[in-house]
Amino acid sequence: MAKLSIRDLARWMIPRMTMAGCNITDIEGTLSKITSSDEWPEKWEETALKYHTLAKEAERASHRATAYEMYFYAMIYYYEGQKILFEESERKVRLYRQVLEAYDKVLEFCPYPAEKVQIPYGDIELPAILHKPPHGDGPFPCLLFIQGMDSSKEEWQRWGEYAIERGFALLCVDTPGHGETRHLHRATLDIKNLIAAGTVCREYLEARPDIIKGKVGVLGNCLGSNYGFQIAMHDHQFACCLIILAISEFRVKTSEKDVPKWFVDMVRFFTGDSTGKEGAFEKYRNDFRLDQTRERVKCNTHLMHPEEDNWLDWGQVEIMASYVDAAVKITPVKGAPVFEGNIMSHLVPIYEQSHWVIPVAFDWVQDQLLNIH
How high is the pLDDT of residue 262? Predict the structure, then answer.
């Protein structure tokens, strides 16, 4: 693969990138320059540096709106550069620190209040960003964002915009094993630990004067759909539960032998199994099961799931819905995947259609938390 562009091999990743706010021309342009996986961080860093330069120029000229946009692009491309590195290394830490440094500038020029917070949890603090509507001091309802395995709070900046436009706040948090907690503080992912952290985050939010007590919902996305759903199962104080891409069982494709190496490597890295935490991978698989507890979700729930997904069949959303003792809304995302891939690819129609899926999903949260209907 040394002389072969991996643009086509990585096409299945494009929907996730666009959902996070990457520009399609930058995606295609960067992927076309990459001839090996070793070049992945370098070429994304080159793209990021272009926007970092533009951002600094806009900042010097006091063009705040442009500075915000350019720093955002710099940050998200630094993020893409480090994303596929499932390794304990100085390279990983350096690249992720670039994300954080650029994101500090994103927050400095953000056109609405976006506050960095630290949520005490056991022996660590959970770094988070609280996106708040720009009108007044609140109090506001809030949605707690529980992200998937290989993501961090910075990736979801654009989703903060969807929330504040609809009058509620969004808390994007690096729970144990995500983002800062994993890459800088070496905290690993344990689902039961994460479930407990979800309650701590809700309690933190409801203790704030700018958040309405009893009006905190939970959002689970990708693998985080399982964590977020289990948080709602164990903590009945959440006002609503939104799930985007329902993953109720830890299985992909058709059998165990079909799980690609990159996916296993990712799970082993984030759980710590690859760095000496023996048995963490199997513990993660076991903790993923929804039938391990008698608890059930008691709040109104909206499940959004694709009808045609090459890893996750429709039965996943039906299983999840069976654990809800409240009103359940299921929104099918119709249509076959548009972006092709290879045998290792997870083709995700729901992310390809995120330009309407996310607004519709957040409209439902608005209805739940602001009692519009």
Answer: 83
The edge-to-edge listing of strands for the beta sheet with 140-146 is 114-121, 124-131, 169-173, 140-146, 211-221, 240-244, 300-306, 328-333
pLDDT for the residue numbered 252: 59
Asked whether the CA dihedral 223, 225, 230, 231 is positive or negative, the reply is positive
* Token pair for 127: 């770094």
Closest CA to 270 of 348, 202, 197, 175: 175
Chain-centre distance for alpha carbon 361: 15
DSSP character at residue 248:
-
List every span in the chain annotated with CATH 1.20.1440.110.
Answer: 1-111
Residue carrying structure tokens 């001091």: 137
CA distance 3 to 260: 23
Instruction: Tell me the two tokens of residue 315.
Output: 């039965």
Tell me the CB-side half-sphere exposure of residue 306, using CA atoms within 13 A.
21
Fold of 112-370: Rossmann fold (3.40.50)
Weakly modelled stretches of the chain, pLDDT under 50: 1-4
CATH 3.40.50.1820 residue ranges in the chain?
112-370
Q: Does domain 1-111 have CATH number 2.60.40.10?
A: no
Distance CA 112, CA 133 (A): 7
Residue 297 DSSP symbol? B
CB 187 within 8 A of CB 124: yes
CB-based contact 344:143 (threshold 8 Å): no
Q: pTM score, two decimals?
A: 0.94
| pLDDT digits 0-9 by tens, 6-18 | 777 788 999 999 9
Using left for φ > 0, alpha for ψ between -120 and 50, and beta otherwise, residue 126 falls in beta
Q: Are 304 and 357 in contact (CB under 8 A)?
A: yes
